[in-house]
Amino acid sequence: MGSQISETALYPPVKTFLESLGYEVKAEIGPADVMAVRDGAPPLIVELKTTFSLALFHQGVARLSVADHVYLAVPRGRGRRFQRALSENVKLARRLGLGLLTIRLETGLVEVHCDPGPYAPRKSARASAMLLGEFARRRGDPNLGGLRGQRVTAYRQDAMACAAHLAASGASKGAAVRAATGVDRATAIMRDNHYGWFRRVETGIYDLTETGVEALDAG
Q1: For residues 209-219, average pLDDT
Q2: What is the sign, positive or negative, of the torsion defined by CA atoms of 114, 120, 121, 125?
Q3: Which long-range contacts (CB under 8 A, 24 or more apart) does 85-93 make?
Q4: Residue 18 near residue 69 (C-beta atoms within 8 A)
Q5: Are 47 and 63 in contact (CB under 8 A)?
Q6: Does the model's pTM come out above 0.85?
Q7: Does domain 2-114 have CATH number 3.40.50?
Q8: Which of 41, 101, 120, 121 is most buried, by CB atoms within 10 Å?
Q9: In this structure, is the dihedral angle defined by the CA atoms of residues 17, 21, 24 and 28, taken in order, positive or negative?
Q10: CATH architecture for the domain at 152-218
Q11: How far is CA 159 from CA 72, 77, 84, 174, 193, in A?
Q12: What is the helix (H) or strand (E) element at residue 37, kind and residue range?
């Protein structure tokens, strides 16, 4: 979509929108694509781009050195891919203190998705606790930063410890595996059988499957 239109096509609907709010609007004032001024209000700047890009955010951040109210504006796209991009870029704009507009070129409708302002992120105590818990339970540092695909998690390490005990000792009660390995959740891991490594031979007693043996062999 971005390659089929020009930034100049975005200007008329943005100008009309800002004028409807009482602003006087002019284009290409210094480095700013659009500048708007209204009595009793601070100046407002809009940076136009035909698609989301890092350059757009760089420009927006640069304009914050001359104005507190800076908006980014892009054409409104269609489909889930654009919706995902819009959602992620709204989050980024908020973090940077920028506003974000989209423009429906077919109708000239301008939509405000966020306004400029200081960003105060809401912390998730649950997510933070999960990260700290994973860090504490992880044995050593088995992964490489930036790794794609299968990661060695604390859960996988615990499951491997349980599997190694069963390989050495044969079918065992969950309590015995917990005592031997120090894995407090040993019974739950074998019962849930997330990796397909375990099978229940009797109530509370588990053994390895062929998949479990192969996983141990593979390390």
Answers
A1: 90
A2: negative
A3: 85/52, 86/113, 89/52, 90/114, 92/57, 93/57, 93/60
A4: no
A5: yes
A6: no
A7: no
A8: 101
A9: negative
A10: Orthogonal Bundle (1.10)
A11: 48, 46, 35, 12, 9
A12: strand 32-37
Q: What is the pLDDT of residues 150-168, one digit of tens each?
A: 788 999 999 999 999 999 9
Residue written as tokens 């979509």? 1
The pLDDT value given to residue 1: 42
DSSP annotation string for 71-109: EEEEE---HHHHHHHHHHHHHHHHHHT-EEEEEETTTTE
> Alpha carbon of 78 to those of 11, 85, 86, 104, 182: distances in Å?
20, 11, 11, 10, 53
Give the Cα separation of 190 and 185 in Å (integer): 9
* Type of residue found at 24: E
Amino acid present at 171: A
